[in-house]
Amino acid sequence: MNDQLLMQFAEFLEKQDLLSKLTEHEKLHEYGYSDIHTIAAIGDLEEPNVTEIAKSLNMTRGAVSKITKRLLSVGVIESYMLPDNKQKIFFRLTKSGEVLYKEHQTRHQKWIDRDNKFFSQFSSQQLEEISGFMNLFNQYLGEQIVEIGGDNNAN
C-alpha cells in the first residue's frame, strides 16, 4: 500500500506541474517558481525586504538575495530605501513586474476555483482528515530537509 501511495503522490505532482504549465500565461514561462513567488511576495508585503520575503516564502535570506538580484537585473523589480532608514533595502514591482504579479494572481485564483470544485464533493470531516494527514506529511518532509542539511525554514 505504501508503494501505491507514493506512486499516487508522484502522479499528483506530475499532473499539478503539467496543469501549471498548460494554464500559465507565456509571460511567466521565462521565470522559475521561486522568481514568480518572490514577485508575488513583493506585491503582497507592505515593506518587502530580503528578510521579510524570506520569512514569507520560508526561504533563506541568501536564496532570496540571489533571486532579487536576478529580478533587479531583468527589470521586474526595483530597490529603494526609506528616507528615515538608509540601512534597509526594500523592493517594489516595476510596470513589467506588476504585469507578472497580476498574471500570477489570476492563475492562482483559477487554480483555487478549479480545485475547490473537486473538494466540494467531500464532507468537512473527510477534508479535516485529509488536511491532518497532509500537515503531518509536510512536517515529516520538512524534518527530512533539515536533517539532510537543507533550509532551516522547511518546517
Please provide a written account of the structure.
- With 155 residues, the chain is mainly alpha-helical.
- 68% of the residues lie in helices and 10% in strands.
- It is built from six helices and two strands; from the N terminus they run H-H-H-H-E-E-H-H.
- Strand 1 (77-82) and strand 2 (85-93) form a beta hairpin.
- The longest helix has 25 residues, at 95-119.
- It is globular and about 60 Å long.
Quick recap of the structure?
The protein contains 6 helices and 2 strands.
Features:
155 residues; 2 strands; two-stranded antiparallel sheet; mainly alpha; 6 helices
Broad shape: globular
| Arrangement of strands in the largest sheet | 1-2
Which percent bin holds the helix content? Answer: 55-70%
Structural class: mainly alpha
Mean pLDDT: 89
Radius of gyration: 18 Å
Number of strands: 2
Unreliable stretches:
none
Q: What is the oligomer described by this structure?
A: single chain
Strand content: 5-15%
SSE arrangement, N to C = HHHHEEHH
Determine the number of helices (DSSP H or I, runs of at least 4 residues).
6
For the sheet with most strands, the description reads: 2 strands, antiparallel
Cα end-to-end separation: 27 Å
Question: What's the helix and strand layout?
Answer:
Blueprint: H1 2-23, H2 33-44, H3 50-57, H4 61-73, E1 77-82, E2 85-93, H5 95-119, H6 124-148
Antiparallel strand pairs: 1-2
Helix pairs in contact: 2-4, 2-5, 3-4
